[in-house]
């Protein structure tokens, strides 16, 4: 088993109609450790949001295909050739642009024990990046399962 560094320990799958419609509008500003995954989504809007966000466009294998940094409120972005998007806090310290083509690993078992939600909830998971030996901290002892099945 290869260890991959967990980048966002508190990911959430946005699956219901209301969640997808409202997105992060009700979140004042996402924290740096949070990520919001919108499966089967190729465009986003930031109407009604209070803070800018960073957005990643992912293909069916959860590889990063497009990076949009600092998307301000009141804008629309399209992700051609993407299957889903990941919305993040803006001004992320991670080198997102350098990760184009890298695969993200969605891992339910990587959710921290101190999380403020039920770790067995299938809509919550940790997100790692499949770059072994990249000099990033590694979440050892976790199952680095693939994103399929979420």
From TrEMBL:
InterPro entries: Saro_0823-like_sf. Gene3D superfamilies: Protein of unknown function DUF192. This is DUF192 domain-containing protein. It comes from Idiomarina aquatica. The lineage of its organism: Bacteria, Pseudomonadati, Pseudomonadota, Gammaproteobacteria, Alteromonadales.
């Amino acid at each position: 088993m290869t260890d991959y560094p967990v980048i966002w320990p508190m990911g959430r799958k946005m699956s219901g109609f209301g969640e997808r419609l409202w997105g992060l509008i009700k979140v004042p500003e996402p924290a740096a450790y949070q990520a919001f995954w919108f499966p089967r989504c190729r465009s986003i809007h930031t109407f009604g949001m209070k803070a800018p966000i960073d957005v990643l466009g992912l293909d069916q294998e959860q590889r990063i295909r497009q990076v949009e940094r600092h998307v301000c409120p009141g804008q629309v972005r399209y992700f051609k050739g993407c299957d889903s998007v990941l919305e993040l806090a803006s001004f992320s310290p991670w080198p997102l642009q350098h990760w184009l083509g890298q695969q993200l690993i969605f891992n339910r078992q990587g959710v921290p024990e101190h999380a403020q939600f039920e770790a067995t909830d299938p809509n919550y998971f940790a997100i790692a990046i499949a770059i072994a030996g990249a000099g990033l901290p590694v979440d050892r002892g976790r199952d680095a399962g693939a994103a399929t099945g979420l």
